[in-house]
Amino acid sequence: MAAFQIHTATDADVTELQEYATRLFSEKLPGIYRRSAPTIEQEHEFVRSRIEPANSTLLMARAQGRVVGLLDFVGGTLPEEVHSGLFGLSVSRDHRGHGIGSALVQELLMWAPTRGISRVEVRAWVSNPRALALYERLGFEREGVLRNAVVVDGEPIDVVVLSRLLEALGG
């Protein structure tokens, strides 16, 4: 397995991120939302929505000059919720099972307290047991199940809500 690097995405990464999203969405994975490939304008908007707020971020993993993993974290916007946020995670097919997802989440868990974030939440479809196992291995606890929260190909799927509480360092 090739080495990988993690860094915070910037506007300069938009084209690469659009290519990554196009590859990822074409897989029609059982545990993520199905979408059309984003336009460059849509990808710009996505990146900005994650890098402009102080309590949000977009982390990317790159191997062999190519984006192979992505974690987006959206912090709360209301005063009562700015200490918390929700993340999404994806890793390209040929790089799964090599620690990239774990490394991205661990990077988030180091970043979050420096921004005053003390609660990190993630949602995983029950049809994605690998994701559930990863989050639990990293200290996330199940808080509940959103019954029939998504419907794929006419089939309802439950979504598990997990969170991890952190000690915020600033804010």
Plain-language structure description:
This protein is of the alpha+beta class. The chain has a single domain (5-165), classed as Aminopeptidase. The protein contains 4 helices and 7 strands, in the order βααβββαβαββ. It has helices at residues 14-26, 40-51, 100-114, 129-137, and strands at 5-8, 57-63, 66-75, 84-91, 119-125, 141-152, 155-165. It has a 7-stranded mixed sheet, with helices on both faces. β3 (66-75) and β4 form a beta hairpin.
Question: How is this fold's topology laid out?
Answer:
Blueprint: E1 5-8, H1 14-26, H2 40-51, E2 57-63, E3 66-75, E4 84-91, H3 100-114, E5 119-125, H4 129-137, E6 141-152, E7 155-165
Parallel strand pairs: 4-5
Antiparallel strand pairs: 1-2, 2-3, 3-4, 5-7, 6-7
Provide keyphrases for this structure.
single chain, 171 residues, alpha+beta, Aminopeptidase, seven-stranded mixed β-sheet, 29% helix
Summarize the structure.
The chain has 171 residues and is an alpha+beta fold.
What's the β-strand tally?
A: 7
| Cα separation of the termini | 38 Å
Radius of gyration: 16 Å
CATH-defined architecture: 3-Layer(aba) Sandwich
Q: Report the mean per-residue pLDDT as an integer.
A: 91
Strand count, sense and barrel status of the largest sheet are: 7 strands, mixed
The proportion of residues forming helix, as a percent range, comes to 25-40%
What is the H/E string?
A: EHHEEEHEHEE
- What's the name of the CATH homologous superfamily? Gcn5-related N-acetyltransferase (GNAT)
In the CATH hierarchy, the third-tier topology is known as: Aminopeptidase
What is the C-level CATH assignment? Alpha Beta
How much beta, percentage-wise? 25-35%
Structural class: alpha+beta
Reading side by side through the largest sheet, how are the strands ordered?
A: 1-2-3-4-5-7-6
| Outline type | globular
